[in-house]
Amino acid sequence: MPNRLIDSQISQNVSTAGAVSIPASTTPALFGTLGLNTAAAGPNLSVHFTATVTLSAVVAVLAPVTITIFRVVDGVSTLIYSATESLPVGTLLLTTDVITVTGIDLLTTNPGFVVYQAFVSIPGGLTVIPNRVGPESFEAVAYSD
Fold this sequence. Notes:
Largest sheet: 6 strands, antiparallel
Low-confidence stretches: none
Helix content: under 10%
Oligomer: single chain
Distance between the termini: 6 Å
Structural class: mainly beta
Order of helices and strands: EEEEEEEEEE
Shape: elongated
């Protein structure tokens, strides 16, 4: 039996380049949250997601950026995805990088309603702190049989 669409949502924190200038933080910063109604799903529920964050900095060092995705059911957060990408090494040049991650959450049980949250962070001790400049978005789509 082919998969069918159950629900989809988009959380658009910033929709254009350069719309904000928020320093990245060592504390994970929430940039997207959404909820999916999965009550109509069959036994094989999967949620496909994509998250995008854009950062800009005068780069003098390699600056790792981590995007984490959590599933929240009944107030309990579970890490389901984590990816780290490094901004390129530069020679004091202004760089802007769009970081996009894609993943799938294969749920073993159907909670009926599930919340997903996307966070971005950098490690401590960096001499150059990149700025979140937009766009920032988070999308999730639930499919089932």
